[in-house]
Structures are given as C-alpha cells and as structure tokens.
Design goal:
The protein is mostly beta strands. Helix content is 0%, strand content 41%.
C-alpha cells in the first residue's frame, strides 16, 4: 500500500499506529559491503575495517578490566602479563593484529597466541615485565 499524503489535522498523535508492509531499499551489512573513503577516491571494506575486540584498562595489578568487547575472560599469567580470551574466535591462530596502549608502564610484545587468546604485556622503564594497566584492540577476520 502506497502512502502518498497525510493530513496533519486528521492524525491523532495520542493514538498508536501500526505499519504493515515491506520496507524496500534497506539492506544489511555483509562481508563484502564497501564504503567510499572520506575523499571518495577509494573504497574500504566495512567489516574488515572494524575492531573485532577491545579492552580498556586491563589492570594486571588489581586483576580487573574497565570495559571490553568480545572478551570472555582475563588471566594474570605473570608479572606484567595479562592473557585475554576472546568470546568469538579469529579465523586463524596468528593472522590478526593486536594493538596495545598503556595507561601505566610501557607496552611490550602484545601478540596473538591462538585464534582465541592474546596477551597484553607491560614492562618497566628498565625493560623487565612490570604490572600496569593496558588497553588493547583486535583487528582481523573473525572465524
């Protein structure tokens, strides 16, 4: 049914109205969906460009995490070493990227260790592992 005109004076906004029909032109984002770049000269894959997991303030001292996405657990595996387990695995054991920043200490050797785990490690100014707080982001392909 096509709706061509609504007369505002005959519409009672206090009542509830239901729509029955089909919305056309809307689509879902798929693995092959692309979007134009800001300048319009190139395109980028929407799905591949998204972070697949992130961790905010993983504190190896207190053993807690401020906030996260796609993480099921965090383990203190040693001084300055926090292992993060993903809820949804990546497509390969090591073909994905972990980017780390820190709020205390210095970042060191953040790396994928399997398709479901990675480590956020911090070191002191002398280069030895030291407890601190890390932020991490995972990019790559989900399984």
């Amino acid at each position: 049914m096509a709706l061509s005109k609504i007369k505002a004076e005959s519409l009672n906004l206090a009542e509830t109205y239901a729509f029955t029909g089909t919305v056309t032109g809307a689509s879902e984002i798929t693995a092959s969906t692309t979007a134009p770049s800001e300048g319009g000269a190139a395109t980028t894959s929407v799905v591949q460009g998204l972070a697949k997991a992130w961790t905010v303030n993983a504190n190896s001292i207190a053993g807690n995490v401020g906030d996260s996405l796609n993480n099921s657990s965090f383990s203190d595996v040693g001084t300055g070493q926090t292992q993060v387990t993903l809820t949804n695995p990546m497509s390969a054991a090591t073909d994905w990227c972990v980017t780390q920043g820190v709020t205390s200490g210095y970042p060191y050797n953040c790396a994928a260790t399997s398709s479901t785990t990675h480590r956020l490690n911090t070191v002191s100014g002398t280069g030895s592992y030291a407890d601190g707080s890390s932020n991490g982001q995972v990019t790559g392909d989900l399984a």
